[in-house]
Please model this.
Amino acid sequence: MARVSAILGANPRTFGSSAVLGSLPADAVGKEARIRGFATPAFAGCAFLGRRPSYLGGRRRIATRLGGMGRRIGSMFFCVRLDMIVDRSYSLEMGRTSDARERLIESGSELMHQRGYTAVGVSGLCEAAGVKKGSFYHFFPSKVELAAAVIDRLSVGSEAAMDQLTNGKGPPLERLAAYADGVFETQSELHESCGQVLGCPIGNLGLEMSTQEPALRERLDRVFDRNVETFESVLREAVKGNDVAPLDITGAAYSILALVEGSVMLAKMKNDPGFLRGLKRDLFRLIGAELEVEN
Model:
């Protein structure tokens, strides 16, 4: 990684402070900053181009002096005067941390699940994550890029649930019943804590964004495809064990996905998780299996 150093002027009366800053990552600021000659994350330097530097996402204010002492880097001189509040997403000793990016993804996951993609703005995301806008645009060139990271994060949780369905304990139909119960319980818990049935975050984003952002649609589609593959695997196991009669495995797997997502969407529209109480019964009916009645 290319590294540069910024130096404060030696005369405090001229530059307001006197210090030498350690070597810091040159890539820690955005493209606009590098064009103007900014070089460091925690204490940004401004090239001696005779220009007044712009505000970079509100992160910090930089004042330049056309004179005095600077550090020559390539064909440009760097010199700074500190007049700022340092963005806590960065540290001088450790360079840029990953905490800000993680907080943005977590906040994006929560807010987009609650409100949807369109209703969530960058300012709200940054406020919820406790980071500045400059940090947001350093990690994500646009909100679409953040949404892609959110989908990738959600897909990890989806894969964990599908792994339980494939490799969990018990026979295949028992695992399928537990999966349906889990869908009902999850939406019931969300309704109790938030006052709303929030629905499936992947399904919600798919309904909202599939016709607007092809890149997001492809990511969402891959999550659903993996779910279908899992349903296929469970159904093959059930057919092999004579738990269900031979059937169109792929068609039945897509029907299960449609049943689950459609039922969750209906529960969300009605704001009533009770609409998911019959999901297990309907799922077993769809594949022609008998559901044991619980005492």
